Amino acid sequence: MTESSSNTAPPSIQPWLNLIKHPRTLGRYQQIFLFSHMRANTSLFGHLLGASPEIEGYYEMHIGYYSWKSLWRQKLLHFADHPVKPQGRYMFDKILHSEHTVDDLFLTDNHARLFFCLRNPEQTIPSIVKLWRDIDPSHDYCQPELAARYYCERLLELQKLADRAQVGYYYFDAQCLRDDNARCLDTISEWLQLEQPLSNDYKVQPRTGAARAGDHSSNLLQGKIVPGSSDYSAIKVADDLLAQANTVYFSVRSQLVRGAAMAVTND
Q1: How many structural domains is the chain composed of?
Q2: What's the rounded Cα separation, in Å, for the pair 197 and 188?
Q3: Confidence check: pLDDT of 10 > 60
């Protein structure tokens, strides 16, 4: 074995070396969790937060949080691909799928900052269908019936998560992030006690629009909030499906708003 080859770390070891080279990453970060569902402006939310010098992370990690070991896994995944922010004090992730379990350890931690977000079914269900028809026409969610089932089941799971949370959480309607962004960003900055308030602009990151990292749409590549919502009129969803989804949506939303320590809604 030559000297040069002996100094080359295997790929599985390299992320650990990245952490060791930056001692501040070995300390404790405060966690930011966004609990939501697919197609709820969550990629935009992540990029707005990730633009802050105080917040590490901006996309969905697709992992569960079972114990403190999960926090090391999060760091390893993130810092393997991203430089360390000198002022970073938060680690962000969003949880959009119920198979990614979050232990009560993180729902009762006074140091954690929890966010909940919902988008109405008239926009969400067609958006899910369009997404999967574009990227995988064989996927179950190309069918409005199955997309609606995911939506309803996920909202009910979000209610259970909020019920388990023993620390205050921030709730916002997804569309407020685009159409009432000044109020959203001001109150989010206040909730997180950021030294530098969040702004409408953000940096397009290495994993922006990448597979399994969130939104693939061109809007996210603009590097700023684009007001309004997309036109999904070409996607037909049966009235009875929307009625059932709306029943779940309004019930869960009212409970989340009522239980929130801070809420921004479009009422």
Answers
A1: 1
A2: 9
A3: no
Decide: 33 and 95 in contact? Cβ < 8 Å: yes
Contact between 40 and 117 under an 8 Å Cβ cutoff? The reply is yes
What lies within 8 Å, CB to CB, of 248 at 6+ separation is: 151, 152, 155, 156
- Domain annotation covers residue 174: yes
Contacts 24+ apart (CB under 8 A), 216-219: 216/131, 216/134, 216/135, 219/44
Q: Which structural domain, as residue segments, surrounds residue 35?
A: 23-264
CA distance 215 to 37: 12
216 found inside a domain: yes
Report the alpha-carbon distance of residue 237 to residue 234 in Å, rounded: 10
What CATH number corresponds to the domain at position 107?
A: 3.40.50.300
Side chain identity at residue 248, one-letter code: V
pTM (predicted TM-score): 0.88
pLDDT of residue 187: 97
Residue 94's pLDDT is 97
* Res 4: pLDDT: 39
Question: Which H or E element spans position 131?
Answer: helix 121-135
Task: Name the residue among 41, 36, 63, 236 with its Cα closest to residue 151.
Answer: 36
Tokens of residue 174, six digits: 């997804």
Dump pLDDT digits (tens) for 79-99.
888 888 989 999 999 999 999
Residue 156 exposure: Cα atoms within 13 Å on the Cβ side? 11
DSSP H or E segment with residue 249: helix 239-259
